[in-house]
Write a structure and sequence with these properties.
CATH class of the largest domain: Alpha Beta
Structural class: alpha/beta
Order of helices and strands: HEHEHEHEHEHEHHEEEHHHH
CATH topology of the largest domain: Rossmann fold
Number of domains: 2
Distance between the termini: 59 Å
Strand content: 15-25%
CATH superfamily of the largest domain: Vaccinia Virus protein VP39
CATH architecture of the largest domain: 3-Layer(aba) Sandwich
Length: 278
């Protein structure tokens, strides 16, 4: 921890300005970062997309471990520090810009099939970035990211727990998530107000179970969690005809009083399939 603070102070003395509006909280502890990178299983055979490399400490660790790294940074002021930190590596491409507004497929083309996304995502854009990656249909093998502990709780949550919701279902439908490590706020510079967690998400080749009508499934899930205190028979009005829904619930052995927060991903799929069959 002391080493991390010493390195952070040196970076600050060199002129790095941390921008609150960009959600910047940098990690400078290379021992910690190397252990997190090792937990992803990335190798010299793999390509990595890094979003928000900042001053480049994680980037250096990625360049050591992976065959090819593409780092996308929106903050023009931090780019000189990033380039200075990574100048010794010839397997790195730095791209200036907002990853949400760039051609992600083109950026990731050099990384090949089954590439990794490994990043300390700026906290203020965590949800949009995860949505972008989940919906990209790119050949991503794994997404491993540092997020706020509260977000990690949602990604990993089990049914009938306070953190379980739409984000949980989406994450667990598309990936197999694992908690790698909780990282205390004091490890970061500047320290955020909350602890963080590093989460590894293995992308699924297929959903956890066959899906008859994916569009219907997500209309049901979104409606079910938009009114999470209501039973599904009330929350899904206008999405599924009432008697068809009740028949589907009965066929699965579910009570008409069940709420969406009680259903795991497989149960949501089974319910949507039963409704699709009419």
């Amino acid at each position: 921890m002391k080493k991390s603070f010493q390195q952070a102070r040196r970076r600050a003395a060199e002129g790095v300005v941390y921008k609150h509006d960009l959600g910047q909280h940098f990690l400078y502890d290379e021992a910690l970062l190397r252990s997190l990178v090792a937990a992803t299983g990335v190798s010299r055979e793999d390509g990595v997309l890094e979003i928000g490399p900042g001053a480049g400490t994680l980037t250096r660790c990625l360049c050591e471990a992976a065959g090819r790294v593409v780092a996308v940074e929106v903050d023009r002021d931090v780019l000189p520090f990033l380039r200075a930190a990574t100048g010794a590596f010839d397997n790195l491409t730095i791209i200036e810009g907002d990853v949400r507004r760039l051609d992600l497929a083109e950026i990731c083309r050099p990384l090949g099939e089954g590439f990794f996304v490994i990043a300390n995502i700026p906290y203020n854009i965590t949800t949009p970035i995860l949505d972008l990656l989940w919906e990209s249909r790119l050949p991503i093998r794994q997404i491993s990211v540092m997020v706020q502990k509260e977000v990690a709780d949602k990604l990993l949550a089990a049914p009938s727990t306070p953190a379980y919701g739409l984000t949980s279902v989406r994450c667990q439908y598309l990936t197999t998530p694992h908690l790698v490590q909780v990282v205390p706020a004091e490890c970061f510079t500047p320290p955020p107000k909350v602890d963080s967690a590093f989460v590894r998400m293995e992308m699924r080749a297929q959903p956890p179970a066959p899906v008859a009508d994916e569009a219907l499934l997500w209309r049901m899930v979104r409606a079910g969690f938009s009114l999470r205190r209501k039973t599904l028979t009330n929350a899904l009005k206008g999405v599924v005809e009432g008697e068809a829904l009740r028949a589907a619930l009965r066929s699965l052995g579910l009570a008409e009083t069940v709420r969406g927060e009680a259903l795991d991903v497989e149960a949501w799929i089974a319910l949507a399939n039963a409704c699709a069959r009419g």
